[in-house]
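Morning!

This is the sequence you dropped in the shared folder:
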Amino acid sequence: MTKSNNRVTQPALFEPDPLRLPALRMRQGRDRVLYAFAVDGKRVEEFAAVSRIGRDAEHRVVGYQRPEVVSHIAEIRAYLESDNPMLPNAVVVAFDPSVRFEPLATLDSRVDAPSVPGELVIPLPIGPDARKPGWIVDGQQRLAAIRESTIAGFPVWVVGFVAGSDSEQREQFILVNNTKPLPKGLVYELLPATEARLPTMLGKRRFPISLLDRLNLDDDSPLKGRIKTPTMPDGLIKDNSLIKMIENSLSDGVLYRLRRDGAAEDSDAMLRVLKAFWSAVGAVFVEAWGKKPKESRLLHGAGVVALGFVMDAIADRARENGVPTEELFRADLAALKPICRWTEGHWEFGPGYLRKWNEVQNTPKDIQVLANYLLVQYKARVWNAAG
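The structure's back. Tokens below.
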């Protein structure tokens, strides 16, 4: 018996008829050879295994794949079982030398061609413990989702190469998975125009980001062009700060209450509130408005998120009178102006607790301190005074 893929395997015994797949052979660099082919994703496990990362008896690292992520697989599976799924990215498989390529003889003589058509011949091992000729370098979660899905089959692209050793497989795994991901901001900007089913986290963010998009583009928005995104890099407010502010209100604030029948979102009503509030912020704190975050904490991440909680508090006080207007927001925010230190001075967060205006950072702790301070002051100066 031999030891491979972190388990003991039987010597390789193969089916008499190998798997033969139409493929393209391509050479890269000095001596790299790649094979591209399509195959039913449910069949990949017949010839390729997952090399689980772990340590051997001498505590050396063996394998390279992380454990399957159940939640990620479930999301991919749900997408695959939807109406019209697509997985364009190729699975990457490292093969041992038992896999061979048979070119079409009539075309193989064209040495200058970037790719050569032919057949990839993959031996199929006999028995569940037999060593498989391939190891999955990238695409483990996708293949697991296809395997567990209720669909009859789902073809995927596979790019394969022959690896002479475990270290070469591990090297390729690191290189394939170390590419720079798309910036989150760019993904967020694409969401409002995307109707396809998305992973849970992105799906939840699609609506708040659509509100953000309107705030940044509508002519009547006080934040038009002020939100910094990949396509609007000159903005002052980081998109993620406003997204957090909107998500907080959608979770338990005035935007949550504006949902029709507690379910469907009324985006126009929500936008009216958001535009009215930020218009009032700009009018009341005019000296701090329009400045970069390093010059003012008003449009800094901490200020934006903290003011979102003040918006919800003002709207809650005016709940019986319907949706708050810009005039109401202005009047209530004006009561807070004397204690705000957006551009200079010290915040007096409590007895002996002074913080210089620019020491407030965009961290959960500082945001909570600033939000709690503003809410306490608001209730003392407006809510309790009115009562």
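Headline: The two ends are 83 Å apart (CA to CA).

More detail when I'm at my desk.
O.
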